[in-house]
## 1
Amino acid sequence: MKALWRNMEQDRERAVISWSPFMISLVLLMSIPMVFVLIPRIPPPKTLPGIPNIDETDDLALFRRATLASDEGGEGDGLRRRPASVPKIAFLFLTNSDLTFAPLWERFFHGHERLFNVYVHADPASRLLLPPTQSFRGRFIPAKSTQRASPTLISAARRLLAAALIDDPANAFFAVLSQHCIPIHSFRFTYRALLADPGARPSLTSGRRRRRSYIEILSGEPGLQDRYVARGEDVMMPEVPFDKFRVGSQFFVLARRHAVMVVRDRRLWKKFKMPCLKSMVDSCYPEEHYFPTLLEMRDPEGCTRYTLTRVNWTDSVGGHPHTYRPPEISGNMIKNLRTSNSTYSYLFARKFSPDCLDPLIKLADSVIFRD
């Protein structure tokens, strides 16, 4: 009887073993429809792309170097005294395409090589087909990917500021520009306008004139509330209360101490680097908020509160300003672009299509650089 029972047990085990592959295959086959049923129920990401961790790590190391290499601390207390040197302007170009207007900028720079430096952040995915001209050759900094509606444009501008701080302690002003920007005055006029700011006040500690930054800082603008909650309700609190949240052009000219302030900042950056909600993509313009908000909170009296780059928003499309075309280019247009409601003339203008280069070159000596 025991032998019979033992044989039955062995037969059952062999049956289970022989049927196991079949059962496994059957179970897997029956699971496939369940996968398609469950997949739609897995929620997609609710936010737009953020900044990769590796990019953030690289940037922090760069910003530490810039802070240590700088001649001024974030609040004007020097890490070491600036050596006697002629102040320079650092021209910082953010681009994702060819620097089409480089020939016009070369005419602008010509003869003033001791008074400026050029730095370019070119998106690694961009295809730059035109060979760099003299002033742009070898001036490209290590760059990371950028895209609209993300804090990557803030990071790119901060990298440019850090690179310029490290490169030359004589850099006194830092002008952020795009490949679509052009100068609308001569270099001599531009340089004198920046350094002769009558509103600059002497420092209480050193007695030296504290140069101001030319950055647009606006409050009470339509849609500002939606921009504030673009990352979610109360996400910006407590570091950035709504009554301190500002908007302004992403193109500006910073004084050196403010450039240092930007690369030193960690407190506000941890809020502005957060990605926006996908549902708020039409209100997500971090690069238009971070810089004016930071300076409004840290040194409002040290800013003119207006930009020196003229932009025409009268017929904007998809968040882009009016793009000037060759038929619009004329001497009167240049003079109109200079006109400002502030105490200063505009010094730069955007946005110009690449085929505007030739008509602009024709006006260079007779109008643009003739002040």
## 2
Amino acid sequence: MTADTGEFTRDMNYVTTRITEDGRDGYPVQSGRYRLVVSRACPWANRAMIVRRLLGLEGALSMAIAGPTHDERSWTFDLDPGGRDPVLGIERLREAYFARFPDYEKGITVPAIVEVPTGQLVTNDFNQITIDLSLEWRALHREGAPELYPEALRAEIDEVNEVVFRDVNNGVYRAGFATTQQAYEQAYHALFDRLDWLSERLSGQRYLVGDTITEADIRLFTTLARFDPVYHGHYKCNRAKLSEMPVLWAYTRDLFQTPGFGDTTDFVHIKQHYYEVHRDVNPTGVVPAGPDLANWLAPHGRDALGGRPFGTGTPPPPPPADERVPAEHTPLRS
């Protein structure tokens, strides 16, 4: 929503029901009971996809992939035969929201976790979902799953996540949806000031917090991956492209080439969503043909900084065949 000042303000009132080991909200962790609904286009949903992959939860938490575009009535399952999710049997994600909250009036967002037996939404609290996958779903993690939210680093991770969300993750939206020059420029400068801060921080260390991949890296990556394809032009975040910021560009390529990151990133869906759905920003709906993706596979040199991507853990195996990003949507070799 946009305030009278022209500033974009994100509604952060989500369904905060949690799926926990002890089931204190009525939803205990249980293999096969829940389905994660995502769109590959959405950066918040992409976070959940990466965490699920890294932790090896594919067999315990199934995943529904909505199409890249939607209308005012919510995300649709137009990628599936007959336009229905094969597990939930619904055409639109809003059916799961209304099954639990018949008078639900807020946005129908992804990621969302739906209880399969009832077809009801459990939560769409993207901020908490990934943390709970790390901490509450431990019993179902794969052998060798990394610690993405280690206890000793949580305070620092939380501190980094807070400023990155404010100025970068949400900052690009604050710039893109601003309706006054002042609001846009405030968001623009806050964004690039934070990107400069991140560049300095990452110039001497491979990852944002500690020497392994953590929740902080995942949250930053999904915004940076969308920067040149979308935010630089579509949202007027154009002081520089990601590919013109040497430290952040190498850092993002390092993560992209790490199992779990690039293999969940669909550049075609990303561009289709932003340019086709946001007609207030792009009235024609024309989707740009570029940028060229080949350089995402260029050597990054970040391993010279040391670090252990998965700590004492191991890389995840390749994604299941039915979850692979189409080869024509990614520079990665399928």
## 3
Amino acid sequence: MPTSQDSQKPNTAAETKNDNADTNLSKQPSASRLTVDSLIDAQVNFIQQWLHNQAEPLAMEAWQWFGAQPLSKYITCDHLQQLMKDWLLNQPMTEVMRTDIRDILHTIIYHPVNDNVPLSELVDDAQVETLANYIGSHEQQRNILIHTLVGNETFADLLTQTLYHAINDFMESTLDKAGGVGKLMKLGRSSFEKATNRNLDEKLQTYLHRNIKDLTRKAEANAQEHLSNEEVARLMVMGWERIKDQPISELQTYLSDEPGNSSIDHIEASIQQSYDRLRLSPYLHSLVSASIDTWYANHQSDTMATIAASLHIDEAAMKQCSTTLLPIVYDALETPWLTAHIREMLAAFYAQPAIKEGLAHGHD
């Protein structure tokens, strides 16, 4: 790699070009050869050619210098806090980004390759078994889940209404087909309601609800007693065994892709709403601030190169990156705006009184 000393010397092409420029100047009359404009023209050409030839080694030397600097020298914890809040949390996601997310999700979910790839390609059997054993080993959480699903009032009410409608439909259809017996049963029902001042439907629902609540408690106790840790894990693994060979495209059956009713649009919109609500909440701001404080405390003494290495960015990666970006640098060096800036800088240099006076003495 060229050293800093080598970087001061333009290569053969640059020397040839600038030698030609010097030769052309030497052929001009003495007065014009020493004009400021001619000097500026020659220097602009030299600077652009020199930067063009030295762009790659300069980029690597810049990286080596930057990588040796400690993080705390240029970036404070407050800088990071402000960056995260002003740039990330305080700014909503743009509609362009949201559209890109929806389009990319649609491409991934509905890609034809999903028809030929099983679900087991996404999740390994060992991962499922580990997850099943982990869930099964938490007995208290499992019992809470069973109680939530089986032993709660909502489940009992739902089951009561389901059974009531089933019994009522059966009775109505049976009485209509029973002829005289059916009429007699309807008369008995009417007499019962008059004697007790209660509606039979209400009485039936009360009876069902009271007994079903008792049944759900028994069902909950039975489930908690017989669904051991091993049984829960085994059921989860068995469930995975039944679906793991299905293609990934099977997930599409649970989604809608109709215009105006796209599941992807609904999912993205829901995530966006949650994100917009959370990003402005003091709760999330507190967690982000604490996370940044923790990260900065762990890395404030590290060099930039050490931090970059944790992201697999090393000198080889930077060399590859600089090589990829060199065409942009070359094009930028040849742009009129850079030429104009270099010319303006040199004109300001030669406009200094001391330089003007020195050039004037040079003509004497």
